[in-house]
Amino acid sequence: MQRRVRRKEKFNFGINERKRILKKIFMEKKIKVFAPATVSNVGPGFDIMGFALNQPGDVIEVALSKGKEIRIKKIYGSRNLPYNPSKNIATASIISLLRLRNIKVGLDVVIRKNMGIGSGLGSSAASSVAGVFAVNKLLDLKLSKSELLVHALNGELISSGTLHADNVAPCLFGGFVLIRSYDPLDIIKIDYPENLFCTVIYPHIEIKTSEARRILDKKITRDNAIAQAGNASGLIAGLITNDIDLISRSMKDYIAEPKRKELIPCYDVVRIAALANGAVNCNISGSGPSMFSFSTSLEDARRIASAMKEAALSKGLRSETFISKINSRGPVIIK
Ligand code: HSE
Q: What is the set of domains in the chain, with CATH numbers?
């Protein structure tokens, strides 16, 4: 599904709106935004479900400059990301926003990556969302999150070459998100149990989303389509009705997991360790290698984290673990 997200018409601000933006520009010179990591797919929700974590997350600082260019001043936490603003996800999404709104302004951008590229934690989505969220606030554009989503998705498109919103949407809106449809985009926020904890393990290998998508079958059988639809519906129903058993038995994936687990050498042992330590269930986060499990207490979440880490190490893989409830806020301005 390769298509650029684009609005049909250019949107130009009127004279009063421009005056207000200029005034704002002279008042505030820079802003720093944190945008969270996300777990996408969530088992049976390939490309259509995701939720935000409290940590890790990327931080983007955007400052007004005298020129008319968008420049990346510094990237911390990664040596491999491009400094070319149209090739870097964070600035590409900003450029998409400014172009469509016909705003010419100079911006200096500093990017702090706090998670690995190809980690399966929505690293590119976090940068993309942080970028557009920061510029919207800095210039006081008053764009809604739905309007920002289009530009953040354009950034994501650059990174993976495909359009999938299951990282960008939960990162931007916060909470647990269902993408009911891509054309037109229909994003629905889903309630979830208050006591749901997520343990994430990030084994230190890189899996490119493009590669993890390439290995998937282009078509699925009718039996698998039925099973997937049943589980996806069951997961949503379980989340809404606080039915932990239903969540547990619905977290099975017939599209991505059977192929992608082969890319994660510790997949089986980590999953077994999580389940043996009280996990509600466990699956791949996004396109991997990160894996996530749900549990219903902080104590369980911590025990599961240690067990997962030990299991990964038994396969020779070092890893990081994160424990988080579902983050309901999405991106935030920080000092
Ligand atoms: N839904 C996407 C995939 C998420 O699984 O390819 C990538 O982070």
A: 2-189 (3.30.230.10), 192-325 (3.30.70.890)
